[in-house]
Amino acid sequence: MEQVRGRLFVTVAGFGGLLLLTLVTAPLLGTTSISLARAFDRAMPFADNPDAQIFFVARLPRIMAAALVGGSLALAGAIFQALLRNPLATPDTLGVSSGAALGAMLAIAFHFDFAVAGLSSVSLSSLAGAIGALAIVYMLATARRRGLSTTVLLLAGVTMTAFFSALTLFVQYMSDFADTFRAVRWLMGALDVGSYAPLLAALPLTAIAFAMVAGLPRPLDLISLGADAAAARGVNVQQAERLALVSASLLTGAAVSISGPVAFVGLVVPHIVRLVVGSDHRLVLPASALFGATFLIGCDLVARTMFAPIELPVGIVTAIIGGPFFLWLLVRRT
Amino acid sequence: MLHAIEVSFAYRNGGPAVVDGVSLAINRGDLVGLLGPNGSGKTTILKLLGGMLRPRDGSIAFEGRRLADWPRREAARKIAYVPQETYAPFDFSVMEIVLMGRFPHLGPFALEGPADLAVAHEALEATGMSAFALRPFHTLSGGEKQRVVIASALAQQPELLLLDEPTASLDVGHQLEVQQLLSRLNAAGRVAMVLSTHDLNFAASLCRRLILVRGGRVLASGPTAEVLTPAAVRSLYDVEADVHMHERTGHLMVTPIARI
Which residues contact A231 (CB under 8 A, 6 or more apart)? Predict the structure, then answer.
């Protein structure tokens, strides 16, 4: 039996290499072909260099956004699946995404007009919505003295999703046509960020979440077999569950504030990864983050080029790929 | 090694006491059966003894130190717990499940080394599951799963093993297997065991001591032959029963006659 040290090295090297390859290739691919040499040509002023403009303004921030959003959502999905002991859980399961959507809808409908550190009012409001939703779920889950109840969490999440969606629809119904159109476009999930500011703003949250996740993989392995059994093996179950809940929600909130809700990445990627590396979360979590980034860059490449000159919102592409996969998964499980 | 003094517990603040003033002592190498009707508090007592629940009143001391004061992982190197049933939502192999028993020795960041693999193999051997090491856990039968989870608990290298109804939902053949396994482990490794069970004959043939629990209170405790009487069965289950010595096994046999 191969030891986990070797498998971890191969996993990170493999998925890391794949991501690196994608990161290098994707900015060169698109409807306009550009030359890397000219994009990096320092002799030409930036304003007169269309290759550099396409590379650094149109494509690179978009690809970095895809990497950050894809990696965050996939990691959040893998954590939620372990925490809820349910392979069908997604970053949306606990209502964080729908809370973010409500926040964005309110910002659009009421024309919130502020921007902080390069973040638009829509991004900030969606982040506030995500954190608000997390706070409610967290309070519900910890109201009882003995830690989180998986059932309570799941039911609360489903209920909150329905509740927030109804509020979003209500606000949408009451607002005018142009606002509704903007909101619908936001809800499709898109990566055309146009600058690095939203990424830089989301980065600290993502970094905090990654730091919180660092010690979680092994406790999540044990918790997936039952909280009591994990506690009896020396896992601080309550602490691990809270860290998992907060970190996965932060990742989801940060991702949604950049791109809007991008469907299915958080569900599909951990499952693809498990087919390759097995179920050990010390492998699943890093591989999910790396492959989630790769997967979304790939989906966005399809979205950018498939129906050129139209650029599809990436959420449509992930759902078209993710939907059938999800059904296949359901059938395979039963 | 483990002393519980006047321990009480309720799942809700101000709720009814599920465990009510229980005192008991477990000694090194002990093999103790916890008997009682459904809802009598057997599982709760096991979880209290394992430190998974904290007593509301009273105290539990392990090796002379309050159990609540033991760092979790340190305690888990001494006390292991086997739940009644284990469901794996992900596709873990048998070996992966057993290696999870090494957590208290490694913590969240260390990876298993050759020494840990050796301990896991030894545990699989002790439970007769070596041939299953690479099989997916969820494809095993109930009896095989139970033995794997016991192997995982053994990989903790505990001095005390707590088992919650280890033979529930097993057929008579697998029951005998688990019985022989526990008896062998107890004799060989000097691992003390406390197990809860509904199966009086299983308890009678395996356990040296019995603790009878009803309504969260201890009705009686002592050597199996002294405690397991028709009167005890009646007060425990409201059942009229014959208790006699079985000649071929040399163990007590309980035959229920009628509900009172």
Answer: A237, B50, B51, B52, B72
Taking CB atoms and an 8 Å cutoff, what residues of chain B touch A87?
A: 89-90
Domains delineated in chain B: 1-78+159-221 (3.40.50.300), 86-157 (no CATH)
Mutation target among B100, B119, B137 for the A interface, most CBs of A within 10 A: B100
Distances B171 to B130, B142, B147, B178, B252 between C-alpha atoms, Å: 22, 9, 14, 11, 21
ipTM: 0.90
Q: How far apart are CA A300 and CA B42, in angstroms?
A: 56
- The pair of structure tokens assigned to B121 is 């193999």
Kindly report, residue by residue over B159-168, the tens digit of the pLDDT: 999 999 998 8
Cβ–Cβ gap A221/B100 under 8 Å: yes
Cβ-Cβ contacts under 8 Å for B214 (sequence gap 6 or more): B36, B37, B40, B235, B236
> pLDDT, tens digit, for every residue of B54-113?
999 999 999 999 999 999 999 999 999 999 989 999 999 999 999 999 999 998 888 899
CA closest to B44 among chain A residues: A228
Looking at the structure of chain A, the number of domains it has is: 1
What CATH number corresponds to the domain at position A128? Answer: 1.10.3470.10
C-alpha angle A114/A116/A119, rounded to 5°? 90
In our burial notation (b when 16+ CB lie closer than 10 A, e otherwise), range A159-176 reads ebbebbeebbeebbeebe
A136, with CB counted inside 10 A (0-12, 13-18, 19+), is: middle
Model confidence pTM above 0.95: no
Q: Could you tell me where the DSSP H helices lie in A176-280?
A: 177-188, 197-213, 217-223, 227-232, 237-259, 265-277
Query: Nearest CA of chain B to the CA of A201: how many Å?
Result: 30
Which of B86, B90, B95, B196 should be substituted to probe chain A, the one whose Cβ sees the most A Cβ atoms within 10 Å? B90
CA–CA separation, A32 and A38 (whole Å): 14
